[in-house]
Design goal:
The chain contains six helices and three strands; from the N terminus they run ααβααββαα. The chain is mainly α. It has one domain: Winged helix-like DNA-binding domain superfamily/Winged helix DNA-binding domain (Arc Repressor Mutant, subunit A, Orthogonal Bundle). It is globular.
């Protein structure tokens, strides 16, 4: 594989004659898509008492972990959320009564997250609302084949599971 040539200042950002500019296009369009859809999804989920879309993912991961709970450190890695941000979300969710923390004491004090009675089954209550919002926002913009192609391309940006 040839090393990537460092572009000149004229080529640097958006000169489509330079193949490597494609990566710039990917980045800026990912950011714009996030800014477009995030507020709309957030608004839909707030109707269910979920103040941020990441809360849904946190609740789902804890539910899937079962009665042993979900290690917070593993959740950071699965969701690509820095520790400080995840801690903030968990504290807010704890205050709302969706989950509680436990601790595993070993060489390091590890936090384990568990669903409360209020948090149990939230996935089933939230998913229909989330589904409708996703279908309304993204469905009209692409067909199913394009959606699967895009999903597969985005998965390439994530580390492969160990």
């Amino acid at each position: 594989m040839e090393p990537i040539k460092t572009p000149t200042e004229d080529e640097l950002f958006f000169n489509d004659d330079q193949e490597i500019v494609a990566y710039n296009r990917v980045w800026f369009n990912l950011m714009r898509a996030h800014r477009k859809f995030h507020p709309r999804m957030t608004k839909a989920l707030k109707a269910c008492g979920i103040k941020d879309p990441i809360w849904y993912e946190i609740l789902l991961e804890i539910e899937m972990a079962g009665p042993d709970g979900q290690l917070m450190s593993a959740l950071e890695q699965k969701l690509f959320v820095p520790q400080y941000a995840l801690s903030r979300h968990v504290a807010r969710m704890e205050k709302e009564g969706f989950l509680h923390r436990g601790y595993v004491t070993d060489l390091r004090r590890k936090q384990v997250l568990f669903l409360t009675e209020k948090g149990q089954g939230m996935h089933a209550r939230i998913w229909p609302v989330y589904w409708d919002a996703i279908q309304a926002e993204i469905g009209p913009l692409m067909d199913v084949d394009d959606a699967y192609k895009l999903a597969r391309l985005l998965i390439k940006l994530l580390p492969s599971p160990d």
